[in-house]
Amino acid sequence: MKRSLALLLTGEGIRHAGTSVHAVALPTLAVLYLHADPGQVALLACAVKLPALVVELPAGVVLDRYPLRTVLVSTDLVSAALVSGIPLAAVLDQLSMPLLYAIALALGTVSTLHTAAAMAAAPLLATPKQLHQVNSRFTSVLTIAGTTGTALGTLLISTIGATRALTADALSYLASAWCATQVRALPAPDRTGRERKPVIHEIRAGLVYSASHPVLRPLFLALAVTGVGDGLTLTLLPYHLLTAVDVGTTGLGVIMGAGSLGGLTGALAAPRLVHRYGTGRVLVYAWPVYGLMPVPPLLAQPGPAWLVLLAVSGFLQWAAATCIGTTQRSVQQQVSPLELRFRVQQTSLWLTRGLLPLTALGAGALASVLSIPNVMAIGVIILLLPVWMLWRSPVWRLPAMNEGAQ
Q1: How many H helices and E strands in the chain?
Q2: Alpha helices, DSSP H only, in 336-371?
Q3: Pick from 66, 117, 166, 143: nearest CA to 326
Q4: pLDDT, tens digit, for every residue of 22-57?
Q5: Using a CB cutoff of 8 Å and minimum separation of 24, what contacts does 127-131 make?
Q6: Do 95 and 89 contact (CB within 8 A), yes or no?
Q7: Running DSSP on this structure, what letter comes out for residue 402?
Q8: What is the Cα 203 distance to its own chain's centre?
């Protein structure tokens, strides 16, 4: 069991690092090689994120119907083939923006399904007492891999070019597929005595259970509201920092690096905090920390002192984010019946990640009418609403999970 978990986490770390490489390479290709305008670059970014809106909920049904290891391996192989198509098109002088849009859309779809499978597989490789620790490790691995992959992607693009960097990306997917084939302990779905219903009925069952459960209902509502607030704040934050605060690309990198370190810290600290203070208190106290951290950028002025403060706020925001994320995911897994666990998981992801493209578009539309600081201020107010919602719900009274801190 431990070997299978280690292989799963290793594969996911390698894959996520590769994904971070193409996250840098795709816009670089669009701007430097195809001379894309800002609207085309924005459309390319939307093509990567949009599948989450459409695929997250059906993904839960797919995970119920097919072995997780099969999903992991097949999505890795498809991802490798898709990424390899870009260097091939460049060699054949067929690289174009429509091709990048199509590949970005397909990659976003496959990646959504793969991440769902990996997130569902991790708790199956742990005992109930280890759920929070495993979720913590999973988030930590992705955080480290994302930061490393972004840096590696930047280095590869500057040294060997964007198209060749994507070859390394394809190899990362093949390595992830090999790791998945070595995971031996994943059970296949139990189809005995279960009638296969239409996909929409299966999705509805997950939604109904989530909406009727006394703990999941307020928790998922808080996640949905947070997703809206994120769309209004995070979408506009880099532009605001680069223009109004004049942090420069180096300063923005420092702030993003501090956020990554905070994310890692929050994920590792979450099991200990829950063990000491209880699940409900950790969630209710971490949420306002997350919601208030966009305030310093709204007040910031150019200068090194403000840059330090912005780095600290980025650290705290993402520490709170991963603390909330790993804790609420563990709550889901503990209170959901096994036959609905995957669909409940995908409901929560759809409420946070799936709605993000729509809220991001809304932020852009509001920014054309209001000022960017005003739109972000509205986002902060929305981010603080879950605190009141959770305080009045049974979530506040959740005790510590039945597990020891690592």
Answers
A1: 16, 0
A2: 338-349, 356-367
A3: 143
A4: 777 887 788 778 887 766 776 777 787 888 888 889
A5: 128/334, 128/402, 128/403, 129/402, 129/403, 129/404, 130/403, 131/330, 131/333, 131/334, 131/401, 131/403
A6: yes
A7: S
A8: 21
